[in-house]
Amino acid sequence: MKTPKQLGYRFPAEWEPQTSTWLSWAHKLESWPDKFEPVPFVYTNIVKTIARFQHVNINVKDDAMYEDVHSRLTLAGVPEDRFTLHRIPTNDAWCRDHGPAFVINPDAAQKKAVVDWGYNAWGGKYPPFDLDDVVPTKVAEILGLPVFHPGIVMEGGAIDVNGKGCLLTTKACLLNENRNPHLTQEQIETYLKEYYGQEKILWLNDGIVGDDTDGHIDDLARFVNPTTIVTCVEEDPADENYAILQENLELLRTLTDQDGKPFTIVELPMPGHVAYDGQRLPASYANFLIGNGFVIVPVFNHPNDLKALTILQAQFPDRAVIGIDCVDLVWGLGTLHCISQQEPAV
Q: How many CB atoms lie within 10 A of CB 67?
């Protein structure tokens, strides 16, 4: 079977036009131990915000959750024509990682397709994950889209693309022995190019402290346009993230795009030491989500919140940049980008 790239498909950049945002409604109490109660309210706020700009598709595990979510969103004033609930059961909430990777080819008979990467809950950390592993194919069935099965483990939060052929990722995650120990870096690059439709793979090293995914790129550095990358930088030399983020900053300055040109690098602050119950949490402003006319950014009641929003607004002058309080959400070890997956328009 031919790969998406061989058939002319590519994974578009997040700022390209979208039809909707996909979420999997949170329900796993163990993901937010002793602090789950506020999470559905945070989700409701996120859906209400996104729905101002585009449609929201939400996976719910059963009829009871369907009724609960429908009631919450209706009471919050989300118009019924701005969201759709799908009875697709999940083990957990992280749609960025277990959700469908949509690829597009405007010239194909089927202009959109789904890549269903293998999913093992970040190296088997949080079993069971059998329901999450089949979400992309379930979504494709609902939408009537063809499905590609690469046959290796990959998570959406591990990669970012510039829409012109470059893909950014980390060695800490994709070369981890708990993902695809049988593959070399070169072989993994081939899978990324063939199934995301990319030309050049760019590697950073380590992720931030507290990130249980082994270093996802969407907490570190993100493309904001084809030639610009925002990257997190810790201001406090005593902070355990300082050296990691400085190393990634220096590395980014040496990287070049698909045409051999250096990127413009924009520094994004960190929200300090965000912890709960003695545990360092992976709080990062880089976990923002881009959609049609908007960027939603996690904020943490920290003085750097406003700095981060101002920096990102400068990068997205034609979009509304909106802060969403994620102090409760990040206790689950992820925020806005981690829980969402964009569906591109074509």
A: 12
